[in-house]
Every structure is written in C-alpha cells, then in structure tokens.
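JOB MANIFEST
job_type = single_chain_structure
chain_count = 1
residues = 218
[input]
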Amino acid sequence: MRVRKRLVDRLLGPAAYEGSPPLWLVTEGLVVAGVGAGLIVSAGVLSVLAGMSPSKTAGAVAVATAAVALYLLITRAGHVFVAGVAVLGALLASGVSGVVAEAVLTGAGRTQDVVVTTVAHEPAGNPAYYCSVRRQDGSPVEARLWRGCGPSVNPGDLIGMVYDPAGRVAPRGVDGPGSLVRGLAMTAVLLLAFTVLCLLAVVRSYRVPSTRSGQPSG
C-alpha cells in the first residue's frame, strides 16, 4: 500500500489536506496558470509577428513550456499533470500562432491568382490535396497550398492565394469565411484546458495538514 501511495503521489500529486484546498493554494494555482498561459501565448504571438523561422519558433515555445513545467516539478506536482501541461502548452502555442497568422492575412493580406504546377494527394495523417504553385510571372511560391486545392484541380489551373506583403507569415489558399473564428474557438478551448490543468497541478502538489493551515508542511 505504501508503494502504491507513493506512486499515486508522484503521478497525481499528494493533495494531502482535509476538505477543500486552502485559499492561498488556489490563489497560487491561478497565478501560475495565468503566468504560464501568458508565456505560452506570448511565444506564439511573437513568433509570428517577428517573422521567426520554424526552428526559432519551436525553440521559443520549448523554452516557455519548459519554464512552466520546471516550476511545476519544483513544487512537486504530479508527473501526469506536468506532462499534460507540456503537451497542451505546445498545442496552445501552435494554435495561437495559427490564429495570429490568420489574422495577419485577413487584415493585411493581398489576394492573387497563382498557377498550379503539381497536385499531390497525401492520405497519411490528415488526408488532403496539396498544390505546388507559382506566380503568373513565373516566380515560385515555396509554400504548398491545401485550401482551394482538390481532386478537381489540375496543373495549369489558376487558384487563389492570400499572402502577406511583409513576408511575416506563409501564404495560404483562399478559403471561405469562418477560418479565423474556428481557430479562435479551438485556441480558446486549449487555453481553458491548459489553465485548468495548471491549476489542478498546483492545488494537488502540496501536503497541507488541514484547510485551516496557511503554510505547507512538506
């Protein structure tokens, strides 16, 4: 039983207090969740607005996520919660980056028709058709487009592309309305899940003798 208890404490946190967690502990959890979410969101936003490369973006997100996870480990949070926070942090940063990029293209993007050079169907993972394209003056476009691409599109066809004149984000195909709203909704769900998980990790990480005690005992 003792070995099992230690394993549960390590995975989920001890949460050794009677009744509800004390107010100071809940407050600390809210602060950690708020600061952690701020770090992750800032990394996602700055990576787009600063025009960072994918490798630098991944590095910034990793640093922000690792900072939150390290703090939780120091407070003896359960390893399951720490792992969940790390995964959700990476997903949240990616979602924020996608929303910011979509907002940039929606607000400052320009639309032009481009020529399809090849069409590839990639069924693995997220099945989709991808179009390699070039501008009508012959200059190539590095990014492949999946929006507006499909089985009915053939090489030589024209499809719409939205691009950022400042070059901060990759171009995308022209899509119907609602992409930004869908991205915001998904990011909001990830943000809520990340915040709740951080709060639970902190609240369960301390051994408090009773709800009347204001300080942890170990």
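[summary]
The radius of gyration is 23 Å.
The beta strands are 110-122, 128-134, 158-163, 172-173.
exit_status = 0
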